[in-house]
TrEMBL record:
Highest rank taxon of the organism: Eukaryota
Keywords: Signal
Domain (Cysteine-rich protective antigen 6 bladed): residue spans on this chain: 37-339
Classification via Pfam families: CyRPA
Originating species: Plasmodium relictum
Official protein name in the record: Secreted ookinete protein, putative
Signal peptide location: 1-22
Length: 717
């Protein structure tokens, strides 16, 4: 504890500088613009859209009681750097109350949702959504929202980007669950999701919070989406001035579980929260709502930049609005004026800092266990998101003492050959004697997170890093769930947690079930399986599965696998169907690319540099002879890590974890190996063929024969 206090003091010692560096942080706050707001808004949202800064403004004016005037104005910054009104969503204003309004943005459009209330303390009677593709011209249409589910006093306005869930983009409208006082579900928050940009809100998401208290009231609920993290800010009747933040994790179906994140500093009150660069940025003040101070928070370490204070003596209505290119807007009102600050942040959190001192608290992030091993645990949902990359940072005094390429190998069991899920490690020198190791993970890997799992990295001298894969990005249905929909429909890439209800059927179970072709799975035990639907389902399949209800009784339910998805650009060898060598996955016309001569198989990879290509190999599982592909390949009959073999230091190859694959009617267990070759890699290869290897060799063991499979990448296309 003493050292943690010293670290805290050390970090705060940098208050005199805009550039903030310490054991956990490397931050630069670049002030871009300070603006005294000349436009008057009751509430406003700032949005960065197609290289323009917009303000969505809820205009409110009280004329004579009880008459009010409402509208929603769209402002854009003009060439003179002033707000210019470009549109009003309600022609001629309205006297109807507008309490609820929300702004959402996607890559190609802005959506503003607003609702009319008969009075401010009743649920809305009409809702609309306005869509714009240029940020200026809007088209407004009716939509329907089920506000009856919400405690309407908890609902407040907010701006949000879409939430990427199950590979699908949702707009989320959220509120405190009005029914929480009538059941024991602990579902504190309910969100309605729209996957058609506000036209309809057909999806209901439940957020369970075990500390939910039916004896207190919850207000001002705000949705916060940051990369892979979804959370909520709210205040309660017990602490009406200070916000609480909870972070939520996907469980199954449309259900999430939420836990507290402690961001409060001393006796201050939290005003607003945003997550950037892996750390939380909070606005906090004392209880009399005086000057707001910005704080960066990661674990128990806090930084307060010197230029992070609001002007004036009071601070009201302060909010963060993330923009593009690592920019933020922080807006607030003091006793006289409204302000907005635009600033850019660079740098990121250092998740673990290793000094190789075997003393408690001398290696920030590392905790000594009962075995005297010091471990630093990183949760996957805390990773920094940058496009299709997720990354985390290790800071080391001098340099690390082990080979980091041997770290973070992923395997669901001892039969499946482990795969390194780190596709790139960047190294940066800091301060002269510190090195930053930046570990990158491709988003594609998330499709293989079927369950929570912890990966390890040995750093030497009894120090280790742990990566907790606590994140899933696929819809999950559990046949032991107490609540199931009456009609069960599954789609491509969905996951089924399946417990066999009868032990006597465990040996025949796999050969009797009817799943779409190319369904992957892992076996947890003799009675527990996890199935992953393929990326493409050609035809609709009607089947049935057993489910175990609340009373622990077994019932058979019909289930539908809907057709749809995308056919991957996949070529490979399927040893479960070797007699038909032209067939693999969803393609059956590959004869001209595959040649079999005894135990030698050659595959010519028909690839173009305008798209990625996936290689695959389906082999029988043998406990004594593991199949080698694609984490390692063969070079003159010697196993070599594929990134070393191809000199892939840029992370242009993505090695996917091995899983079992369901072969209907077969008593043999098969596994599938896959490799994604990025188009950038293909471009590099074809432009410099003489400098790079243009084939790779894998091995598959079947019927007591080692088959050698060569994938040739040297064709002229």
């Amino acid at each position: 504890m003493l050292l943690r206090k010293l670290l805290y003091i050390l970090c705060l010692a940098f208050l005199l500088f805009n550039r903030v560096k310490c054991y956990y942080f490397n931050i630069v706050n670049e002030s871009i613009l300070k603006r005294v707001e000349e436009t008057t808004c009751f509430r406003q949202h700032y949005v960065s859209f197609k290289n323009q800064l917009l303000k969505v403004c809820l205009y409110y004016k009280s004329t004579e009681y009880p008459k009010y005037t409402f509208n929603i104005y769209i402002y854009k910054v003009n060439e003179e750097d002033k707000w210019e009104k470009k549109n009003e969503l309600i022609i001629g204003n309205t006297n109807r109350n507008i309490r609820y309004f929300y702004t959402f943005s996607t890559e190609d459009k802005i959506i503003v949702v607003f609702c009319y209330n008969m009075n401010l303390y009743r649920t809305p009677c009409k809702c609309f959504y306005s869509t714009s593709y240029d940020g200026i011209t809007f088209e407004t249409k009716r939509t329907a929202l089920n506000y009856i589910v919400f405690n309407y006093l908890s609902v407040t306005d907010y701006y949000s980007k879409h939430y990427d869930l199950f590979g699908e983009n949702f707009l989320l409208m959220c509120g405190i669950n009005h029914q929480i006082i009538h059941d024991n579900s602990k579902n504190l928050i309910v969100c309605f999701g729209s996957n058609n940009d506000g036209k309809s809100w057909d999806y209901k998401f439940n957020f369970r919070y075990l500390k939910a208290n039916i004896n207190i009231s919850y207000f001002m609920l705000k949705l916060i989406i940051s990369g892979n993290e979804i959370g909520f800010k709210y205040v309660t009747s017990e602490a009406p001035f200070s916000a609480t933040y909870i972070k939520c994790k996907y469980k199954s179906m449309h259900d999430f579980y939420c836990d507290d994140v402690d961001l409060k500093i001393g006796d201050k009150i939290i005003r607003d929260i945003v997550k950037v660069g892996g750390y939380y940025l909070t606005s906090q003040s004392d209880t009399n709502l005086s000057t707001c101070q910005l704080y960066y928070v990661y674990n128990s370490v806090v930084l307060a930049p010197a230029n992070g204070k609001s002007e004036g003596y009071k601070c009201h209505k302060d909010n963060f609005f993330p923009l593009e290119n690592s920019r933020l807007i922080y807006s607030f009102e003091n006793e006289n004026l409204s302000y907005s600050y635009v600033f850019r942040y660079t740098g990121s959190v250092k998740h673990c800092t290793l000094l190789y001192f075997k003393k408690d608290d001398l290696n920030p992030g590392f905790i000594r266990g009962s075995d005297n091993v010091y471990s630093c645990t990183i949760k996957y949902d805390e990773l920094i998101v940058e496009g299709d990359d997720r990354y985390f940072v290790l800071s080391v005094l001098n340099e690390v003492k082990t080979d980091l390429k041997k770290c973070f190998h992923f395997s669901y069991d001892n039969l499946l050959y482990p795969v390194n899920i780190i596709h790139k490690i960047d190294t940066v020198t800091e301060y002269e004697n510190y090195k930053l190791y930046i570990f990158h993970i491709k988003k594609d890997i998330e499709n293989f997170f079927y369950e929570d799992k912890t990966l390890h990295c040995d750093l030497g001298d009894n120090f280790t890093m742990k990566l907790d894969l606590n994140y899933k990005n696929s819809f999950v249905i559990d046949n032991t769930s107490p609540i199931l929909p009456t009609e069960l429909k599954l789609h491509n890439n969905n996951i089924i947690y399946y417990k066999i209800p009868n032990l006597r059927s465990k040996n025949q179970f796999l050969s009797n079930i009817s799943f779409p072709p190319q369904t992957k799975y892992i076996k947890k035990s003799d009675i527990m399986y996890i199935f992953k639907m393929p990326p493409y389902i050609k035809d609709k399949i009607e089947s049935s599965l057993y489910f175990i209800n609340k009373s622990n009784k077994v019932e058979k339910k019909p289930i539908i696998f809907n057709k749809g998805g995308a056919i991957p650009n996949l070529i490979g060898v399927d040893f479960s169907n070797l007699d038909n060598s032209c067939s693999y996955g969803f393609a059956s016309n590959r004869c001209e690319y595959i040649r079999i001569e005894g135990n030698k198989i050659n595959v010519d990879v028909s690839a173009h540099t305008d798209s990625d290509v996936m290689l695959g190999m389906i082999c029988p599982v043998d406990s004594n002879n593991q199949n080698i592909c694609f984490n390692d390949v063969y070079d003159n009959d010697k196993k070599v890590f594929i990134r070393d073999y191809f000199e892939d230091n840029e992370g242009l190859l993505t090695i996917l974890p091995k899983t079992y694959i369901h072969i209907p009617g077969s008593s043999i267990t098969y596994e599938e190996s896959n490799l994604i070759i990025g188009r950038e890699f293909l471009e590099k290869l074809y432009k410099n063929r003489s400098n790079y290897k243009n084939s790779l060799v894998c091995k598959c063991y079947m019927n007591k024969v080692h088959y050698e499979v060569t994938f040739n990448l040297s064709q002229n296309f």
